[in-house]
Amino acid sequence: MEPSAASRGLGTLLGRAAEAVYAFVMGLLGLVVEPLQRLLGVRRMPWVFLLPNLSIFGLFVLFPVFLNLYVSLTGGTQLFPQDRPFVGLANYERLFDCGSYADPNSCVEDRFWRAVRNTTTFVVFQVGGMVLVSLVTAVVLNRRIRFRSFFRSVYFYPVLLSPVVVALIWKWILQRDGALNALLIGVGLEPVNFLLDGRWAMTWVIVVSVWAHMGFYTLILLAGLQSIPAELYDAAAIDGADGWRTFRSVTLPLLMPTMMVVLVLALIRAVQTFDEVYVLTGGGPGTATMMIVQYIYQTGFATQVQRFGLAAAASVLLGLVLLVATLVQLRVGRRTEGHLA
Amino acid sequence: MSVGAFLTRRRGRCGPDVSDVLTYAYLAVGVIVMFGPVAWLVLSSFKTPAGLVEFPPSLLPMAPLTAEVEGYDRPLPLYDVTLPDGTTARLAQVRRVGLEAQMVDPDDPGEVLRVPVADRTEVRSLQFRFENYTEPLQRFNFLTYLKNSVFVTVTATLITLVVNSMAAFALAKYRFRGRNAVFLVILGTLMIPLSVVLVPVYLVIMQVGWVNNLWGVIIPGAATPTGVFLLRQYMLTIPDELMDAARMDGASEWRIYWQVVLPLAAPALAVLAIFSVMWRWNDFLWPLIVLTRSEYFTLQVGLNAFQGELNVQWHYVLAMTVLTLLPITLVFSFLQRFITTGVASTGVKG
Question: What is this model's ipTM?
């Protein structure tokens, strides 16, 4: 559709206004930065440009890492680190104080071990399921189909939804009088109170999470598939390889690097799962779907007694797990030089 | 046609075959599974409270038709009634007594008819209840939540763009001692997600005095390693000669940054802006920790608090959920190609 002259005029007007605002704001900031250049010289200017970024990084990322280590070694309920008594490794000892690691009931911090167990279950099935579904979807999208970009967007759309929205959409479907139970009754099955039954709740938490995030991994796998040169398929066809054989000996090996990246990325994110699960089930029923980040959040922030030391110790442990996963990713990434940043 | 052929074939040779049918079947199921839940949410959000507790639920927001009848304070529900003489009429129900209903003709309210319940059916029509959207904005704090969310999203995105592009400019366009070290440190912080440093960042925010303050939500995430990386890689492709020419003309470094380099980096800035809008609009865990008083809640936190109340008012919750997903959906529907290629080429999660 041709934009009308009026709307085009409005467009230019808005564009001019935006430019004027941009020039004004940047000029204003220049009043601060330009004297610095006269004062410090051009050679030190890069540091001036880096300053805002590095101060935010320093204050809200780097410093907290060390503060976290320190807080994890302190006890008590005082808020400010300087008021907190130093207790050495007591928090870590408390976290690991178990009769038997297989049985959360025998642990002093049984909630921590339940969270560890739930997170492990979640990670194994969510990551496994997601990689599988994403791979199949990417292969389908890579075929010669009409409306590819539309279908690609369909699978990607839920990725953009907020975790709260995702959880509420599914809570509405899964509740006792919800659409899913209506469907079950429609085909003659018994209705289930999905979110109030521990096993069902965990199953749905995993399914919902795969639903919400698979589009992202599909997109990356699709890019990987599209980077496989067509000549290889032609060569395989000339050699008389059938479809399944071509998939096994051409597609899969060449897609492996991308698969590894996807696997590790999905793993790192699954370990940190919190929002969707928290809104969907609140970690319940009981503690059946409580994940490790929820344990940290509740121990540190959502109880009457804010046990920052214990929460910090648990997050240090979580950080170690993520560090290992990231190092694996870096190794994989270096080996493959994939298209990923 | 084997499963294997289905997996690898890229070109249909002659007409549709089994594998094409399977492909489109998979895609059709995909559309239902991915869009269905969202569509169900939107349809449900227009139902009346009575329509929401209906079981089994109706697909569309159907509600009983009512009519204003002279002499009665409230609108009365309408029924199609089969009269004893075999004709049907549309009557309004005054009240129901056991198996009998007292009904009146809306056009002639003087006479009350007694009709057996079995002889009448409710008249239902498609009705969109827009009050689900307007009432929570007036009666509850949702307008405040909306304002807070918009403020956080816009301010944080602007700050993110400026702060990260400045750092990227320094790292891409100058040679100085320590440049690589700084770049490595910034990239290294990619490994430190917020969930690992919740407690200490909260303590810092506490010291600064930003608890229950929107700035406490905005600033900690403003410097993103992803943003610096994205912008730096793009700025590397901008030729240095342009800067030298500007310097020749006596432009300051700051002028070179905002008048020469930034306009040329617009595509990368646009990608970062879109990501930032989505991160901020959807952000949940950190606002949940920093904001504890409801007048500072963002939409996500407010929505979560509202749905967690003892008696969930689903008709409001669903409508507010739609309102929350609307901006992102609009952005996506206009920029979908841009976003999907951006994600695929950077590996950044939206």
Answer: 0.85
